[in-house]
Amino acid sequence: MSDTGLYALDIGIRGGTAGLFAMVAVLLLRDIRLGWISGLTTMLAAGGAAFALASAPSFTYPAPWWSAPLLVLSSGSPAVFWLWARVVFDDDFRVRAWHLLVWGIVVGLSLSLAFGWARRLGIGAAVGRTLSIASLVLALLALVQTLATWKADLIAGRRRLRFFVLAGTATYVALRAGSDLWSAKGSGFSAVGSLGSAVELGLLAILAQWSAFTIGLEAPAALAGRDRAIVGAPREEPAAVDPALVRRLEHFMNGERGYRQEGLTIGALAAKLDLPEYRLRQVINEGLGHRNFNAFLNRYRIEEAKAALADPEQREVPILTIALDAGFQSVGPFNRAFKAETGVTPTEFRRRALDRS
How far is Cα 32 from Cα 221, in angstroms, rounded to an integer? Predict the structure, then answer.
């Protein structure tokens, strides 16, 4: 096929891709009030539509001034995707100022390249390589986050969403490498490289549509809630969860203090209770209201540690000993989990509790 035919096919694919991404973005706007998850999801979809247009062969560089909003949306997508993976898959993650600074740096470098400022300074090639590397690094960081917390995730919809993220990231990395390889062979292959990028975006748009309608457009609302379960507090158990299973689990955790077992995994706990792992996940999530297995264990462990720290008879017991007795493997994770739960360090909690007693 001639270059003219390749460019025509390229433009057609990009137009359809932009439409698919824009449709997802519009549908997600209704949940924008829910905070970072819905906001970043909408920005991802809008960024995909913007990138499909801004990377088209007909888009001129240096870019015209009116294209600045389009370029901001498209160039910030790698950083947005990284932040989105952190927010969605890590319940303890909070967006900080330096995270937004990363987004700002990526966007700033991209604009300097798009408007020709970097080339006029003689650093265009260096900025371009930096942005390519940064995009791949941010995609891989999102991939690592997706994998690192997969095992402990108790939300069925979010576990399915991880599969789509893995598939999408793998598609992005593979096709990006392939299109760069074709483009590197010579100027005669630039049309092939651009078409490869268009196909890559089209596949990602289809994946975004599929995941949105498979998992449900209510996913941002479902994921936006945080785990508010309190150990020992009365709970309403959904009809889908057998109350007898909930009682068996709570007896093992409270009565037998199963949370004290070092290195307890959800697979090991399922074996002890003679339950399929997927069923145990459902009991912990839907029956007890927990979103993450490690958070589920830590609630029991921290409750025991709080009782020990407030006990005047244990005032001389080292905090490390209390942490190990409760099931933590070292004092570092204990201190972080304790402060996240109570807002104070174990030392400060003990001081205040003993002062009151």
Answer: 9
Six-digit token string for 221 = 């609302």
Crossing angle, helix 68-75 and helix 36-54, to 10 degrees? 120
pLDDT per position as a tens digit, 259-306: 998 788 999 999 999 999 989 999 998 888 888 999 899 999 999 999
62 cis-preceded (ω within 30 degrees of 0): yes
| Total domain count, the chain | 2
| DSSP code at position 251 | I
SS3 292: strand
- Say if residues 16 and 63 touch (Cβ distance below 8 Å): no
pTM, full prediction: 0.76
| Domain housing 26 | 3-224
pLDDT at 33 over 70: no
Residues 96, 154 within the same domain: yes
**Do 68 and 179 lie in a common domain?**
yes
Q: How many CB atoms lie within 10 A of CB 275?
A: 17
Encode pLDDT of 196-208 as tens digits: 667 767 766 766 6
